Amino acid sequence: MEKKWNILQAPNEKIQTLHQALKINPVICKILVQRGIDTYEASKEFFRPQLSQLHDPWLMKDMDKAVNRVISAMESGEKILVFGDYDVDGTTAVSCMYRFLRKIYDTEKLAFYIPHRYREGYGVSKHGIDFAKENGFSLIISLDCGIKSVDLIRYARTIGIDFIICDHHLPDSELPPAAAILNPKQKDCNYPYKELCGCGVGFKLISAIADHFTLDDSEILCYLDLVATAIAADIVPITGENRVLTYYGIKAVNENPSPGVKALIQLGGLKKKLISVNNLVFVIAPRVNAAGRMDDARKAVQLFIEEDFEKALEYAGMLHNDNDDRKEADNTITNEALSLIESDQILVQRKSTVVFKDHWHKGVVGIVASRLIEKYYRPTVVLTRSGEIVAGSARSVAGFNLYEAIHACRDHLLGYGGHFAAAGMTLLPEEVESFSRKFEEIVSSTILPEQLIPEIRIDAEVKFSDLTHPFYNIVCQMEPFGPFNLRPIFVAKNLRDSGFSKIVKEQHIRFSLTQEKNNFSGIGFNMADKFSLLKSGTDIDLVFTLDENEWNDEKFLQLKVIDFRPSA
Fold first, then answer.
1. How far apart are CA 564 and CA 562, in angstroms?
2. pLDDT tens digits, 266-293
3. Which DSSP string corresponds to 360-373?
4. Which of the ends of the chain has fewer CB neighbours closer than 10 A, N or C?
C-alpha cells in the first residue's frame, strides 16, 4: 500500500534559540519545538521529570466531597464496593483502589466488581448495582466509568447506594446524581491536567485520602506500575502529568514491580529485558485485555491484588492462556475476513469494509477491524452473531468521523455508540446487507480521497552523519513514548544500496546503505516485494526509526525501516 509522507515543520528561529540553549543536535531541537518544548526550562522538565511536578489532588472538583464520603463510610462501618470496567484501565484502577483501601479499612467490608463484557456490557450495570444492594454495600466507587450512567446512578440512589465517580470520559450536559464526581474534563473543574486515564483519576483520589491520613508517599507510589500500565494501554497523551506518572511507573516496573506485573513480565518473556512503554502496550496489556475478551476480567484484578508471587503466576497463566486463545481467534477471523473481501471484486473496490460471519468471536471483532485496515485502508465494520442479534465493532482511518457515518445508518440499527475513531453497534440479522450498502453509500459520498491513503508523519530529515550514539542516547531520553510524544521518525534521502542488501527469511530486507561515504544497515519487515527497487541502482529515500542492536557483546545502531521510495 502506497503511503503519503508528511515531513513536519517547526519555526527555524525557535529551533536556533533552543539549539543555543541546549547545545544538542538541531534535529532534536526541531523535534522538541514541534512538541511544544521550546525553552530551556520546558526542556529541563521534559528530560528530567520529577514527582514534585504532580498536581495537588485537592485541585480536582469534588475531591473534598469524595474524600469526606469515603471517610464517613469508614467511620460508620459501611460496606464499600470498588467497581470498574473490564479493560486494562478499569481493572488496574480497581486493583489500585482495592489494594489501598484494604490497607486502611476492614477487608470484610470491601469487595470489587467487574461487569461481564457480554452479560452486562460496558460501564456501570444494573446487575452490579443490584449485587451491591443484595450484599449490603452502600457506597460504590466507580473507576473508568460512570460519567454517562445518569439513570443507573439515579436508580442506585433510590435504593440507598451512593456513588463516587472517578472517570475521564467526556461528560454529557446532564451529570449523574453522585455523591462526588472526579473528572478533570468537567467544564467547571479547575484541575490543571485534563488527560488522565481512569486509573490516573483513581490514583488522585488515593493520593488525597493518603494526604488526609498523612500517610507516607511510599503508600501511594507503590501503585505507579499499574498506573503506567493503564496510561500505556488506554492510549492517552504521554504529556504533562501522564509523562511523570509513566516515567516513574516504568521505573517501578523495572525495579520493583508488584507480584502481578512481575508474573506477566515473566510469562511474556520479558524477564531479562529493560521494560518500555512498548512492552506494556504489546505484551502486558493484551494479556490483561484478553481476560475480558475471552472470559471474565475479574481474574485480572485477582492477579493485580495478589501479594504472593506463586499465586500471581497462576492468575497470570490464566490470562496468558486467554491471550493465546485471543490470538488464535484473531488470526483465524482476520484470514477468513480477508478471504471474504478478496473473493469479491465489488468488496475490493469499495471505500468501506463491512464483513459478517455468525460464528466469529465477539471479543476480537474490534481487533480484526484494525487488522483489516492494515490491508485495506478504509472505514471498517466487523460483525458477528450475538444470540438473536448481530453485534459488531467499527474502526476508522485518520481524519474520518466514523461515529457520524454510523449515525447516518441508524435506521438499520438497534443501537450504537462510540466516538470519532471507533464505534460499536447492534442490528437484526436481516438488516446486515442493508446496513452494509448504506454504510458504503455514506462513506463513499463523504470521505476525501486523501483520507484513503495512510500517512506517515515524519519528524525530521537527517543525514547518516547525524546518527551517532550521543544522538541516539538523547532520543532515548525522550522516553516514555506514546501519543503526543511518539518515537521520532526520520527520513534520509539520496541513499544507495552498498551491494550487500539481501532478503532474509523470504519476507524481510536486510538493508546495507550508503550516503556520502557513511554506511548504515537496517531491517525492513515484510518488504521483500520492494527488493527490486532497492537493487535497481536508483537512489532511494528511506523512512525509519533509530534502534540499537547488540551482537557479540558489541552495540551498534541500526535503522528500523518503515518505508522507502525512489529519490525525487
1. 7
2. 999 987 788 999 999 999 999 999 999 9
3. S-GGGHHHHHHHHH
4. C
- Is the per-residue pLDDT at 119 higher than 90? no
What are the pLDDT digits (tens) for 34-57? Answer: 999 999 999 999 999 999 999 999
Asked if 6 contacts 455 with a C-beta cutoff of 8 angstroms, the reply is yes
- What nine digits make up the cell of 532? 527490486
Overall pTM > 0.85:
yes
Query: Which pLDDT does position 407 carry in this prediction?
Result: 95
Please give the single-letter amino acid code of residue 468. T
57-320: CATH topology:
inorganic pyrophosphatase (n-terminal core) (3.90.1640)
Q: Tell the CATH topology of 344-452.
A: Diaminopimelate Epimerase; Chain A, domain 1 (3.10.310)
In order of 391, 418, 434, the CA distances from 415 in angstroms are 9, 11, 15
Cβ count near 328 (within 10 Å): 12
C-alpha cell at 540: 532511494
For residue 180, the SS3 value is: strand
- Residue type at 273? K
Lowest mean pLDDT among 77-91, 127-141, 328-342, 547-561: 547-561
* 3 state DSSP class of 66: helix
Matching CATH number, 4-48+456-566, of 1.20.120.1200, 3.90.850.10, 2.40.50.460, 2.30.40.10: 2.40.50.460
